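Slide 14.
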Amino acid sequence: MHRLAIMAALALTSCVQPPRATPVESDPNPPSLAPRYPSWDEVPAPIQNQAALHPSRIDSAKAGQPLIGGASLHQTTVHSVEMQFVIFDSRSYDLKVIDQPEDWSGGGKISECLRRANAIAGVNGGFFTPQFRPMGLMITNGRKTGAWQQNKLLTGAVVVDSQPRLLWNAEVNRSSAHELLQAGPRLVDAGRPVPNLERSKHTTRTFIATDGGHRWLLGLARNISLGELAEILAQPGSLAGFNIHRALNLDGGHSSALYYRTADGQEHSDPGWSTVRNYLGIVPR
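Slide 15: predicted structure.
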């Protein structure tokens, strides 16, 4: 009997099947062995050596040249960057958006347009489309052209009502403006450089800035990126002792142009290569 029990137990054991292994599904997208490199807008802007941009390190500078009515032209090299700019007081001058609708007029049109507007100085204005329409809203003498836009490029505007103002998009009251020009991106806000601006493309940049009061600065810088320009503009006193509270980028590259009239009435023009849709002029009040 004992032998029979042992034989029965062995038979039952042979009938038990081992557990079936669960198949492992292969990953259709196996992880890459190469590291992922972030895009430029995911990387915070590097902090430049502030000592290198200190006013005492200005390579060369010329005293301001008087313009008609008391404004002054400055030509300066800051940290190897050539800069030309006009400093003026908004109690004596206003800003005017000057439309230029002739799409084949050439870069030299700046002299004629600003002379006709009685401007003592001015630069090229905002961006325009391939169809030669203003990119964003433009108001000149109360007449509106284009349409208000909000995007990563057009982040601010030059607005003139009772006085010129440099405003960010959320602050703009379009109904009260008789002159307005959308532009961007912002360069300096509350005296600090705007972070994460593009730093790889070096070209001529046109810009406008204010100290937050009555003093304004309008000019251009050569062979510089947006991020580098913001750092220089935010450095206190680096531009003829001017402390910038806000600064906004205008159209640049081949469009960059500068016009001014000296106190003795002589005209000077540094025209851009491209025909542009509008100019921003400084006119006596």
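Speaker note: The chain has three helices and 19 strands.
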